[in-house]
Amino acid sequence: MFNHAYFVAWFQRLLDDVSALQKTNAIIVLDNAKYHKGLPDDTPKGAWTKARMLAACETYGIELDVKEYRSTLWAKLKTYVAANVVPVIVQMAKDRGHDVVFTPPYHSDLQPIEMVWSFVKGAVGRQYDTSTKFPDVRERLDREFDRLPSSVIFDCIGHTDRKVVDMAAYLNAVAEADDAAGAAYSSESESESDADSCDECNLGDYGGDE
């Protein structure tokens, strides 16, 4: 069954392979699948008893009052966990000198592997006929991966790189527009403030008609 434990074991082999290639400071990009973000087994959970939550608060150095409700303790622990406890694989990578980053939700187009997978599935699907059995699908899948052209992988990565560049340019443009709008608003506010001040001036002090 493909779950968090299975993925952690696979990720360990991946890190070993990266080390065997003598690669350092690698950046591993993943999507937001739940099994990618599993926390350590001893991470506090909302279903814990009050006694366990009290012990966890003491372990983490969180201020508490033993008279507090369990819901209050959980609110404190939940905030602490969100800010300080990282997914298992993130810590595994960090311990080996690498970083794990997650793409924004609903942006599979930022994952080259998704396009590679689509290419391979298409090749396997076109071989289907009424006599196809599951072992045939597995055999064809392995064969298509083995003969996957490096140019396809290169193109998929290039497509993602261009997508990231376009998104970065868009975000920078939005930020610049916001800054410009803020500056214009600030200037307008200052002008209105100056005008209000002039309304209070005694023009007679400057030789004006009384």
Automatic annotation (TrEMBL):
GO molecular function, a single term: nucleic acid binding
Feature: compositional bias, Acidic residues: 189-199
Source organism, top-level taxon: Eukaryota
Region annotation (Disordered) ranges: 181-210
Protein name per the record: Tc1-like transposase DDE domain-containing protein
Species for this entry: Aphanomyces astaci
